[in-house]
Amino acid sequence: MKKTFNSLLWILLLSGFVSLQAADYTQGDWKLSVNSNGTVNIYKGSKLLIANSQCSFKIGSTTYQQDQLSNVTVNESTNSDAFGSGKRIAITSKTSNNYTITHNYYLYNNYVLTDFTIAGSQFESNYMAPVKTSTAANFLSGNNNKALRVPFDNDKWVGYVANPFGTNTTSYEVGAFYNADTNEGLVIGSIEHILWKTGVRSTSNGSSLNSLEVFGGITTTSGENGDTRDKIAHGAVKGTSVKSPKIYIGYSNDWRAGLENYGDVNAMFKPKLSWNAPKPFLWNSWGVLQTGLNFSKAKEVSDWIKNNLQNNSFHDKNDVVYIDLDSYWDNLQGDQLEYFTTYCQNSNQRAGIYWGPFADWGKDGNRTVEG
Question: What is the pTM of this model?
Answer without folding.
Answer: 0.82
